[in-house]
Amino acid sequence: MKKLSARRRHPLAALVVLLLALACTGGLYAVFAPADKAKAEATAQSLTIDEGKKLYTVGCASCHGTGGQGTSDGPSLVGVGAAAVDFQVATGRMPAATSQGAQLPRKKAIYSQAEVDQLAAYIASLGAGPSIPTADQYGPEGADIGKGGDLFRNNCAQCHNFTGKGGALTGGKYAPPLNDVAPKHIYEAMQTGPQNMPSFPDTTMSEQNKRDIIAYLGAVNTGKTVNPGGTSLGGLGPVSEGLFAWIFGLGALIAVAVWVAARTAKARKS
Amino acid sequence: MSTTETTESRSRGKAPAGERVADWADGRLGIYSLAKANMRKIFPDHWSFMLGEVCLYSFIIIILTGVYLTLFFQPSMAEVEYHGSYIPLQGQMMSQAFSSTMEISFDVRGGLLVRQIHHWAALIFLAAMFVHMMRVFFTGAFRKPREINWLFGFLLFVLGMFTGFTGYSLPDDLLSGTGVRFTEGAILSMPIVGTYISFFLFGGEFPGTDFVARFYSIHILLLPGIMLGLVVAHLILVFYHKHTQFAGPGKTNKNVVGMPLLPVYMAKAGGFFFLVFGVIAAVAAIAQINPIWAIGPYRPDQVSTGAQPDWYMGFAEGLVRYFPGWEVNFWGHTLVLGVFIPLVLFGVVLGAIALYPFIESWVTGDKREHHILDRPRNAPTRTGFGVAWITVYMIGLVGGGNDLWATHFNLSINAVTWFVRIGFFVGPVVAFIVTKRICLGLQRRDKDKVLHGRESGIIKRLPHGEFIEVHEPLSQDALYTLTAHEQYKPAEIGPAVDENGVERKVKGVQKLRAKLSKSYYGEDGQIPKPSVEEYKEITSGHGQH
């Protein structure tokens, strides 16, 4: 006790007391605050939308307008649907920094999934659009991987490469690599057509076909992919193979040649 | 005395088994004189002389592994449904060529490794030929009497390119199919004959059902057969001409200083073969090549981004990628200049390096034999030309991979393409000038070293306070090596009038030759090497500088 009283005039004492007080109040509030379990579904929904609107006003409205109607800095979000929001925000593409170059890159998501859902609910309330797919829509059950590969090569490989390693588009834009992208996000991308990608609505590509494609990517472009024959050198084909052949193949052989040539037979002393 | 008796008695009786076998063979093959002439054949020692060996050995490895692959490969375009080990292609329709390559990769013992050795060895074979060719070029080893052998080597490189192309097209996968389609486009772009050649090659419209079988014959029989013949001719000529060597004490234009073929080079070359095999096998075990299971079977309506040919065709790919898409209509016929001009350029660029030796010998007018190699710095114009040529080639390669440059260095593909377009014209000029300047600088340095010696790094203070760096005179050997090269005099057109005072007619060609000769060997073309008088004056007079 003596120790404590000795320090009561310490410059940081007031701060410590303040922190303690705040922690106490907060903790007490958390314990005694009324739990809203009893709320009806509809109220929960409208509450989600309300929360989403709050998040939207803080994080998105400066570019997309206060009611999602769009400004000169960002497109209108009326009718883009929850799927588009989930894809853009959960993959970190949105919110975009001021200068992103030619295209928004995939980066660490800023919002938690709960917040993304709230935002999505708000945007969905502005106008009808594709909703967030459920697990049985993009899950691997009943998918035909072989068919998915064929569909992928037919519809996606032009930009995303044979197994989804990505590729270049004009003017610095690009089709991003699909390594370990969540199946839900692949589904949403096909559904909504983000950035330069064309959209593949169910009328163009059925739910089953999308499931096939996702299953194919799961088989050929994840950490668990069976890929015999050694390191795949990025899966980029002959360019990386050529570099490897020159640097490690011929490079090693030249090193060996130098080594062999340096070891010459010595004239025997007679 | 007893020993003599035993040998005498043995010689009267039966000769040892080895001798009898050799005798038997000599009586039928005449190998004794052949062996006598060549067993002690001398080869000089330098690592760069082993680049040709790398080519030879990788070629042998390709043939050996290729034979294994032919045991399982089916060159047929008949459609089958896949039911092999690889899950993601289950139930897909594909050609037998593709499905048998899948079988080689997944179900044949050692099949994938041999396939990968075959393909990696091909890439390394071509790369080694490229480097070997550049070694011969930069050291002037193509000069008389080796011009024909230079052409043989060049032909091997070009044939290697097409053997590689027909080879990687065989599995009928989506990547190589795109390459074959590209080739068809290039053939079609040829005015008048293009359509006929294309229909002849593919047996009708692309892709038809024939090209795999035809490419197979070309890939395993026609081209390798010609190449094998050329390789043998190439080697015979190497034996016949004897190997070139770098200048040095004791080495003249009339001798070869080195080690005998037997036993030294037999052991070295034999060992080197296994080292080459080992390195290629290790590369093939470490890294995947052409994973057709990931690429998928070819269908003419499908295409993937990042579709490049193997590296040796990448330069042609680049030319087409960066050439503007020009197209003209000519009497109702479309001329696709955007493809046809690159096709011509492809031949022109390759032809330029092939014909260079003849241009140089015309400029020098030198009809003598050359067995001593040049150091690249002592032939600045040639070295500059070679580097300029490599620059054009490499710019083509960058252009061929423009999409990967764009994605991996966060660039715009349009910017890469424009860089390459401008670089195609500016790059070689800059490379030529810079290389020539560097060569001249190195020549000056050599001259300085000969006249003033090597900088020893020792600083001496003289009694009157002056500091000097002690230069150590070079050894006799080093002095010889640095001054052994001969320098041409620029060719003169001759006097404007003949002995009778009549104006001489000078042809334009002669003027061109004189001009070229001046740029090669004039004041700006080379630094006069130190003469004996210069050397004596500096070294005898007032000691160290």
From TrEMBL, chain A:
Modifications after synthesis and translation: Binds 2 heme c groups covalently per subunit.
GO cellular component terms attached to this protein's record: plasma membrane
The reaction(s) this protein catalyses: a quinol + 2 Fe(III)-[cytochrome c](out) = a quinone + 2 Fe(II)-[cytochrome c](out) + 2 H(+)(out)
Domain Cytochrome c: 47-127, 143-221
Binding sites annotated in the UniProt record for heme c 1: 60, 63-64
Pfam family, one: Cytochrom_C
Entry membrane topology: Multi-pass membrane protein
Signal peptide stretch: 1-30
Subcellular location: Cell membrane
Alphabetical UniProt keywords: Cell membrane, Electron transport, Heme, Iron, Membrane, Metal-binding, Repeat, Respiratory chain, Signal, Translocase, Transmembrane, Transmembrane helix, Transport
Keyword tRNA-binding recorded: no
Chain positions recorded as heme c 2 binding sites: 156, 159-160
Protein name as catalogued: Cytochrome bc1 complex cytochrome c subunit
UniProtKB/TrEMBL annotation, chain B:
Principal subcellular localisation of the protein: membrane
High-level lineage: Bacteria, Bacillati, Actinomycetota, Actinomycetes, Kitasatosporales
PROSITE patterns found in the cross-reference section: CYTB_NTER
MF term (GO), any: metal ion binding
Name of this protein: Cytochrome bc1 complex cytochrome b subunit
BP-aspect Gene Ontology terms: respiratory electron transport chain
Bilayer topology: Multi-pass membrane protein
Keywords (A to Z) from UniProt: Cell membrane, Electron transport, Heme, Iron, Membrane, Metal-binding, Respiratory chain, Translocase, Transmembrane, Transmembrane helix, Transport
Superkingdom field: Bacteria
Catalytic activity from the UniProt record: a quinol + 2 Fe(III)-[cytochrome c](out) = a quinone + 2 Fe(II)-[cytochrome c](out) + 2 H(+)(out)
Names of required cofactors: heme
TM spans (from-to): 49-73, 117-138, 150-170, 216-240, 261-289, 330-358, 379-398, 418-435
InterPro entries the record matches: Cyt_b/b6_N, Cytb/b6-like_sf, Di-haem_cyt_TM
Subcellular location: Cell membrane
Residues of the Cytochrome b/b6 N-terminal region profile domain: 21-247
Organism of derivation: Streptomyces zinciresistens K42
